[in-house]
Amino acid sequence: MRYSMDLHYVSTRDYLNRVTASQAILQGLASDGGLYVPDQLPQFDFSPEDLIGKTYQEVAYEVMRHFLTDFTEEELKSCIALAYDSKFDTEEIAPMTYAQGAYYLELFHGKTIAFKDMALSILPHLMLTSARKNGVDREIVILTATSGDTGKAAMAGFEDVKGTRIIVFYPKDGVSAIQERQMLTQTGDNTHVVGIHGNFDQAQSGVKRMFNDPVLNEKIREKGFQFSSANSINIGRLVPQIVYYVYAYVKLLENGKIGAKEKINVVVPTGNFGNILAAYYAKRAGLPIAKLICASNENRVLYDFFSTGTYNKNRPFQVTNSPSMDILISSNLERLIYEIAGESDIVNAGLMDSLARKGIYEITDQMRQKLGDFYGNYADEDQTEEAIREIYQTCGYVIDTHTAVAASVYGKYKAETADETKTVIASTASPYKFLHAVMTAIDPKYANVEDFDLIGPLSEISGCPVPRAVSDIVAAPIRHDTVCEPEQMDQVVCSFLGL
Ligand SMILES: *Cc1c(COP(=O)(O)O)cnc(C)c1O
């Protein structure tokens, strides 16, 4: 069964730029610089009670068919089956743990033990299906710049997927030891990793330059290739993230933790605003969510935005112990701005132009009134560590630094509002991924111990087995050694493609 056959995606900067879901997935970003959004937000044709007893894969199908309406049932089910399989270390895919008054939705049971796996394990299959549907027979070359997490998760997703290649650029001196080891040991004949002598911004600019270089694009097309992006603004990443909020709700119902139609709150540690936007879409589609609690670290642009109505990126960039949220431009916020501007491409484009030119924009009071679903706050470094220590001491549960930002912000929210609504906290990374920060927060005696030597102690105190993602890389051979200057990125790509 298909739902709304004629759902299309339009650019947030030009309403006339209108494509199908599969075309939006292939393109990633709209050519006018905008982001693709559904031209009308779908309404779920089921109620959560109907999904009781269903597997993650079954729930994924029920949710995703509402958004990817040009995929057939067979296509979508096949993508889902290929993505959510034994790559995950639990059949539940996204299990929940109750601790200290909240349900932690663990989104880190995939290959790279961070929540990016939830979407990046299905994106390659959605992309290949999209290529087939649109008559694209060229090999798809994914170009990605990463500050650590995305690149590894994207490679793990695209590894040995026929008809694709992936090239990841990372700042040679800008990632953690574990992150670098994870990338350099990446297997798969179609994966390439390149360290650049530069920072993340230079890697990002280099990738954007290649996407927009007509000569290079023509050259690779002649050889049967075409570029695409696995960036978090792709709706092929956003839509799979809606699934786990529905799944979590259904599991709470199934286990008698909430009653039918009872509203829940959701807390999301936020960087690029992708994960929390997925929760917002779930709410808009009919999932009973009350508050969407947006948790930031010291890069608190979003907190300031929710409390003042002004988005201002003109401030120092803070390096924190939750690095995957160290971001001053939350790209996916543009989709929310478009919504609250009454789906006005003109208003949105004006604000984004102001952001690009001056680094700041201010929304109207009328737009602010539409943000009532959101609550924003932030946690500094000490508060983040305190949250890790406290939940460990009271419940024996170990959470990572990103999740701890959410836990801390949830504490502030409860203190302010005394709201007792049942709450789900998105747990976005395994504590094994940020070993040093986590262990030092629990006990300062670990401060001088190397990351790799903390694997055993964490396993001991948490009682959680060491994930394959960690044990595998300890002894795995290094398979990538390319390093280049930022100006040489194009040449490196050409040489990988045999041009
Ligand atoms: C990417 C990431 C986030 C931020 O998610 P957004 O969708 O960018 O808001 C939070 N935690 C971890 C561990 C991440 O890797």
**Separation of the first and last Cα atoms:** 45 Å
**Largest sheet report:** 6 strands, mixed
CATH class of the domain at 96-114 and 236-467: Alpha Beta
Beta strand %: 15-25%
Number of helices: 21
Give the overall shape, derived from the CA principal axes: globular
Secondary-structure-derived class: alpha/beta
Rg from alpha-carbon coordinates: 22 Å
Give the integer mean of the pLDDT values: 94
Number of strands: 16
Q: Which regions are unreliable across 5 or more consecutive residues at pLDDT < 50?
A: none
- Percent helix, as a range, is 40-55%
How do the strands of the widest beta sheet line up side by side? 4-5-15-10-11-14
Give a structural overview.
Residues 8-84 form the Threonine synthase N-terminal domain. InterPro entries: Thr_synth_N, Thr_synth_N_sf, Thr_synthase-like, TrpB-like_PALP, TrpB-like_PALP_sf. The structure is a single chain. By secondary structure, this protein is α/β, with parallel strands linked by helices. It has a domain at 96-114 and 236-467: 3-Layer(aba) Sandwich (Rossmann fold). It is built from 21 helices and 16 strands. It has helices at residues 21-27, 56-67, 73-83, 116-120, 123-133, 149-158, 177-184, 200-211, 214-222, 235-254, 274-284, 301-308, 333-340, 345-358, 365-368, 381-395, 401-417, 435-442, 455-462, 468-475, 489-496; strands spanning 9-11, 14-19, 36-38, 96-99, 102-106, 139-145, 164-171, 191-196, 225-228, 264-269, 289-296, 310-312, 360-362, 374-378, 423-427, 482-484. Strand 6 (139-145), helix 6 (149-158) and strand 7 (164-171) form a beta-alpha-beta unit. 50% of the residues are buried.
